[in-house]
Amino acid sequence: MERGKWPAPATIATALLILLAAVVNPASASDKLSEYQIKAAFLVNFARFVEWPPQAFGAANDPFVFGVYGKDLWGAALDQAVLGKTIDGRPAVIRRTSEVSALRSCQVVFVPAPEMRHWREVSASLGNLSVLLVGESEGFAEGGGVINFILEDERVRFEINPSAAARVHLKVSSKLLQLAVIVGGGK
After folding, report:
1. For residue 26, is pLDDT > 80?
2. Is residue 187 part of a domain?
3. What's the mean per-residue pLDDT of the chain?
4. Residue 86's domain is classified under what CATH number?
5. Is the pTM of this model over 0.85?
6. From its phi and psi, is residue 23 left (phi > 0), alpha (psi between -120 and 50) or beta?
7. How far is CA 36 from CA 112, 118, 136, 149, 177, in A?
8. Can you give the residue range of the structural domain that contains 165?
9. Number of domains in the chain
């Protein structure tokens, strides 16, 4: 995909079908693997519907990095979702770390619920870097995260804070915004 252009309509339709399938598939609290498989599919597709500025990457051949901070709840779900994928022509890789400074070279950073106590430290370290911050805790998006997973009626959904995305120079596709609960005062 060329910088500044969204994927072809067929690609958008396919990705939206995947997102919609994840929204309607139930994920009970006792079935953590299913919940995280759905969240992993969402995470990869979020990256396809967000545009990063060129300065978000050090070099033209740098990989697209999904960062997982602290406790890893994904099991193999995220590895399977990312395996062999490219985002904007870059190979997708995962970086799992408890080092806040290691997150500065990621394009997406996931902060799991057990690590919310470190949320402010992570946010402060990233500052205004173009990083898509994703969480799964109540108030995450309202508090400055860009996307937050929520469970409604045992279904995985998500909130987006467009103001937080704009603050870090990320452009979220209107198609993705249509599927989200908008928080943080921006539409």
Report:
1. no
2. no
3. 85
4. 3.40.50.2300
5. no
6. alpha
7. 11, 21, 11, 11, 21
8. 9-182
9. 1
